[in-house]
Write a structure and sequence with these properties.
Length: about 325
């Protein structure tokens, strides 16, 4: 039997925060994929018409429909062999039906769920109980119980450096950099390493995953652009700005207390605080990541220098797709 090759790829959630990077990277891949299709809603087709027109010029096909409609999704799956989901946190459980229909599809062979971000199964002690992980854990449990034919791969990237550098409003002490004030907010002493991925590298890792199906089938791939300490990030900011920065350090115990308070209040910022606490506790670290499995070397990926340079020149909000 000939080895599997992704030939017709369907992306859902491909115009969202991380989905834009994935879709754009698929369209720029070398060698090019045979057919890339985006499934999107009527509302998004209207509000993001200019982006979709640009992507169509780059070779993208667009299907407009309802992601919760079995009829629409089944029709979109026709002839598709690979499905990539980039739905946001609010749409994670929609994937259960997408996965059910993929298993029933005669053509779908491979599914990449929306896993980009924090490793939800990093350890057996705390990970199963972290509140932000629960929906993704439900998706993984469904896959273990119900998918027998379709192969599944999780692309686990850790925190997006592009976003980590921005403090959360009214919760700055949980981490981030304020360029105007030269303030660097750090959890703890800032000497614990964190594994980061830039948002463009997320797209690069997804493309590399599709280019290495046999190596990727059935795995939760842990991929990273670079692994550094917050203190090293501060030093890079100081180097690139030519200025001394104020390192404002908050004990991890204080972050845990803030986290508990926000969850108790039902504050939506609680999720972000929990994730930043997990990263500060070492929830992004491994003996070895899977970059080499995908044939990606450090020189193929963004560096800390590149990440900081981008943050100082407009950040991810200035990206053009």
């Amino acid at each position: 039997m000939a080895p599997f090759v992704s030939s017709k790829i369907l992306v859902v959630g491909g115009t969202g925060t991380i989905g834009q990077y994935i879709t754009a990277s698929l369209l720029r891949a070398k060698p090019a994929f045979q057919h890339v299709v985006l499934f999107t809603s009527p509302g998004t087709a209207n509000t993001k018409a200019a982006l979709l027109d640009k992507w169509r010029a780059d070779g993208l096909s667009v299907i407009v429909g309802d992601l919760t409609s079995e009829v629409d999704v089944t029709a979109a799956y026709e002839g598709v062999d690979t499905v990539i989901s980039a739905v946001g946190r609010g749409g994670l459980l929609v994937q259960l039906e997408l996965l059910r229909l993929a298993e029933a599809s005669p053509s779908v062979k491979w599914f990449l769920p929306s896993e980009y971000g924090t490793d939800i199964e990093h350890n057996t002690d705390k990970s199963p109980h972290e509140r932000p992980h629960q929906l993704k854990l439900k998706v993984r449990n469904y896959i273990r119980e119900h998918l027998k034919r379709v192969k599944v791969t999780y692309v686990v990237t850790g925190p997006y450096f592009d976003m980590w550098v921005y403090p959360m409003p009214d919760a700055e002490k949980a981490g981030g950099f304020v360029v105007e004030e030269k303030d660097a907010y750090i959890i703890g002493e800032g000497d614990g390493k964190v594994g980061f991925c830039t948002m463009w590298d997320v797209g690069k890792f997804v493309v590399a995953t599709l280019q290495h199906p046999e190596e990727s089938f059935g795995k939760a791939l842990k991929v990273q652009s670079f692994v550094v300490t917050p203190n090293e990030v501060v030093a890079e900011y100081e180097k690139q700005t030519g200025s001394k920065w104020n390192a404002i350090k908050t004990p991890l115990e204080d972050i845990r207390a803030l986290e508990a308070k926000l969850w108790e209040e039902g504050n939506p910022r609680a999720t972000g605080i929990t994730l930043r606490r997990i990263w500060a506790e070492g929830g992004t670290l491994y003996v070895k990541n899977d970059n080499e499995l995908l044939a990606l070397r450090p020189e193929d990926l963004d560096s800390l220098e590149v990440g900081v340079k981008k943050a100082l020149s407009g950040g991810y909000k200035a990206d053009v797709f």
